[in-house]
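Appendix B. Chain record.
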Amino acid sequence: MTESSVVQQGDTSSDEECAVWREALFVFDTNVLKKLLRSSGQETTLALVDSIELIPQNRRWIPCQVHEELRRLSLDELAKYSHGMKAVRTSMRQLRSLAGSELSQFADIERLVDEIESALPWSLKYEELQVHIAKISSLFTIGSGFSPPRLCELCAIAAERYSLSIPPGYKDHEKTGLQKYADAIIWFEIIEEAKARHLPVVLVTNEQKEDWWEKAGNLPLGPHPSLVRELRHAAQTELMMYDSAQFMDCSAKYLGATVSRDLIEKASTELASETAAAASQEAMAPAQWVGTMLALPEMAQTVLNSEAMRHLRESAASYLPAVQRMVADSLIPYQGFLEMMDRVGRRMSELNPPEQQSPPTPNNENK
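Structure tokens predicted for this chain:
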């Protein structure tokens, strides 16, 4: 993370920041937990977990709304995963059929199918997913949330706040149902917990919208001033905010986390890439990577002529990075799958069409 990208917490000095970190309630947003869920095997995610675990257990906290969003996300991902893998299996059957008929001279294609089928994680059980969710949840104390009647009251309050552009959450005004007010509910829970504990709050969120941050252009400077004032008024305490990369950076300074500068830079770069993709609506939906797998039968047919073989090689080289980007946003850590796809790309690039016999040279003597 470059020095210029570090969020400045208003006029807070390093000594004041250090004092806050020694006693603060650390609150983690859904988008941070989403990273733990989808990319649990990544180096930066492991470092993030290590940093979280340096905080005393009773000061690691997530709102009930965040926990519920994590649970709902996992179920949605499970459904998409199952649907996607069903489509991939159909594609593999088509490719194997081609390998046994029109493409029978290309033994490498059938071996390619064998390799894909043996490496793909074909099933994801609900029970396995719950173990993963429970492991993440065990890192934190979970808020008790609000009763349904109180939740209705708070949604009405949030709606009034949104009409006046009072943060947070008013940027979600186009959403429907409870999701429309999720950010506001999370904020109300944070206020109640801060009041009960009489502790300053460190909020770790990868949210980038200006209804959470004060910004200079696209550069976050610190928490939105309205949020700072509201927490001071309601709970007589302070608010600091960091994204996950900045949290890792400060955990090295204030918690003694053993995280290298290179790894912090990598985490910051990953977050910037995810943010840019979301802003330009290029973010891939989980399990969408199966689209590249569905194209394999059509790609395989191109080996029927040498010009198409060149296209096949180019396609293999171009789709692998896309697969890697999409898999990086998938539910389960797919490091093994990514390695397998790299092997697939190399194998497809190495495929050669059968040697074409040159047509006989016309015999001029027979003219």
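Further analysis of this model is presented in Appendix C.
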